[in-house]
Amino acid sequence: MKRLERDDLLPQETSNVILHRGEMVRPSVIRTRQAIFVTPGLLIIIFLLALPCLSLFVVSFLTRGEYGDIEMTFTLDNVRRMLGYGFFGWSADNLLILWRSVVVAFMTTLLCILLSYPLAFFLASRPANKRVLWLTVLLVPFWTNLVIRTYAWLLVLDGNMPFARFLSFLHITEPGTTLYPSQFAVYIGMVSVFLPFVALPLYTAVEKMDWSIVEAAHDLYSSPWRVFRHAVLPQTLPGLSVGITMTFVPAMGMFVVPDMLGGARYMLVGNLIQQQFGTSRDWPFGAALSLVLMVLTLGALVAATRGSKKKGAR
Amino acid sequence: MGLQTYAVCKNYGETRALYDVDLCVERGEFFTLLGPSGCGKTTLLRIIAGLEMADNGRVEINGQDCTKIRANRRPVNTVFQSYAMFPHLTVLENVCFGLISRKVPKAEALEKARQTLDLVQLKGFDSRKPDQLSGGQRQRVALARALANEPEILLLDEPMSALDAKLRVQVQVELRQIQQRLEKTFIMVTHDQEEALTVSDRMAVMNVGQIAQYGTVREVYDRPLTRFVADFLQTENFIEAKAIGETEVATPYGNWTLPESIPWEAGTLSVRPENLQLARPGTPQCDLQARVVTNIYKGCYQKLILDNGLTMETDATTILEAGDTVGVHVPRESIILLYEEEIQRMKAPAPDEKEAAV
Question: How high is the pLDDT of residue A74?
């Protein structure tokens, strides 16, 4: 008869069972479970993001067919066109549009930040029961479609409306001047779209702020700027960087607002891309522009992150 | 003259935080504001720091009216309860902060910061960030950051509340030594009477926005004037009594003759637990007999809770158990006569009286 060993008394499976967050399971179960949960998300990213980006990359080096189709001929023509070498020789138009897009996105973000700080402090200083009301007021415009909201600005900025009349009363504009299409109108539209994206994360950061650090800065003889720089900014930086990302990225590709409020002469890269995929039916050139927009946006974000990290480390 | 406040009042909406506070702190002394939470001691400190505006009254620092001067222009610095370190700056940069704000040349500021860090015995942490320090180290940085500016008055808002008991005792002694070495005026807020006694020259006990009593720590501890002060300084025995003669009172424990004359018809007496003595029953020393209800062993002494409502502390060498009968001697000179709170509210002398006295 076989002698009973200690191992025989234990259930066989105990040996390869682990304790995972309070649960007794085999490692294979954990792996299966992980796979089940990860797969859907992964598939969405692969098929709806990675593959389209790859095709965008490929298409941008192909040729436009005679009827707006895509011909499988490799060419660097789109790159040259982007740099301004067109059918009629070199023009700065495309480069100007790209540069203008960067400037508009940057300025929009900056204006939103400048407006959001007072707004965030105002919201955070409301009594708790009133805050919900104020946040709702801030978010009401989001319940309306972007195109309709922009049409509303067309009405507000019309020459016969009080705002334009007020400006002409101050002798800033001629009576009856309609305030769009103009750079001014584009900024009004852009800021009104993106303000909540900066104000809300900033508000969250301001709400959690440790005010004793602000008091310490005052106590240590700081000027108002020094208080902001060393007591407020470091504490609100996380919220600020979320806001910057959520504003700068979509602002770079925005085309509804500049199209309606900026007119043909104030074209941004978003409009140019939309034109290629729409009226011009030039998908390869559109793809090339999209790619450049993506690279520019990522580059700006990386630069911003590096900059803020360096600032934080000092 | 270090600091004087005259008739400082502060309300938060309906709530009264401070009412008519007159305070006088001499230059070079360690002064403590002691009181339970919500008594207004922190509000008073913040008004002195300029972080809070008094509704009424005046604050003078070294004879100069500072009531309307903003925090960043007052010659005072604060050690905050939470330490309020700048999280993105190193220890050295934190300590330099006030000096750099005042445009002191950088080399000079760094030199001063290093000296101050030596003073608080924090070496070798210059380039650490606050989140890489322990609570005790952060406390030292906070102290150094305030002291580096050489303020006329250093304000400390419950500076030791975040430290564990053992470290707290050590830091108290160090704080006292630093204050005596620098001969600066320190004003501290605390709710811990032992801490107040350890570090201060003088203290004020506060209650509901007013100063209940103020004087040297010894005066206040030995002669609490009201029941509130006596209770806050852990006098546990309160005895209701009636005057039956010039110096004689009737108490539930018998008639006692006191060494001083009695100012009221009926009032409260108080005796500290450690002043009650064991006495052999039957001897003339023995004033009363009682049964021990609970004996709490505290190591160096034992605390006896008696069935007649008194508490006494006696050395732990006498072995006593619950149920034992003991004789108690009440030394007459240790009996404290308490006054009604409304009648005897101790106040700092008014400014003109003060001048006259000098």
Answer: 84
Q: Does A308 touch chain B (CB under 8 A)?
A: no
pLDDT score, position A20:
83
Task: Decide: A202 and A120 in contact? Cβ < 8 Å.
Answer: yes
> Predicted ipTM?
0.84
Res. B38 pLDDT band, cuts 50 70 90: confident
- Write down the pLDDT at residue A314: 43
* Shortest distance, CA A245 to any CA of chain B (angstroms): 22
Tell me the mean pLDDT in the region B196-220: 92
Q: Are strands A18-20 and B64-65 parallel, antiparallel or unpaired?
A: unpaired
Mean pLDDT for chain B overall:
89
A218 touching B (Cβ < 8 Å): yes
CB of A193 within 8 Å of a chain B CB? The answer is no
Contact assessment for residue B116 and residue B104, using Cβ atoms and an 8 Å cutoff = no
Contact (CB, 8 A) for A302 and A309: no
Q: How far B335 CA sits from the closest chain A CA (Å)?
A: 45
Task: Output the pLDDT for position B356.
Answer: 43
Q: Which residue of B has its CA nearest to A226?
A: B101
What sign does the dihedral B167-B169-B175-B177 (CA atoms) show? negative
User: Domains in chain A, please, with CATH?
Assistant: 81-313 (1.10.3720.10)
Contact call for residues A211 and A237 (beta carbons, < 8 A):
no
Q: Which residues of B touch A212 (CB under 8 A)?
A: 80-82, 84
**B29 to chain A, closest Cα gap in Å:** 22
In this structure, are strands B3-12 and A85-86 parallel, antiparallel, or unpaired?
unpaired
- B31's enclosing H/E stretch is strand B30-34
Q: Check CB contact under 8 Å for B86 and A226.
A: no
CA A305 to chain centre: 14
Statement: residue B53 has pLDDT above 70: yes
pTM of the entire structure?
A: 0.81
Nearest to A234 among B50, B78, B87 (CB): B87
Are A212 and B81 in contact (CB < 8 Å)?
Answer: yes
Task: Please report, as a single letter, which amino acid is at residue A6.
Answer: R
Give the mean pLDDT of A167-180.
79
Please indicate if any CB of chain B lies within 8 Å of the CB of A225: no
Following DSSP, what letter does each residue of B115-132 receive, concatenated? HHHHHTT--S-TT--GGG
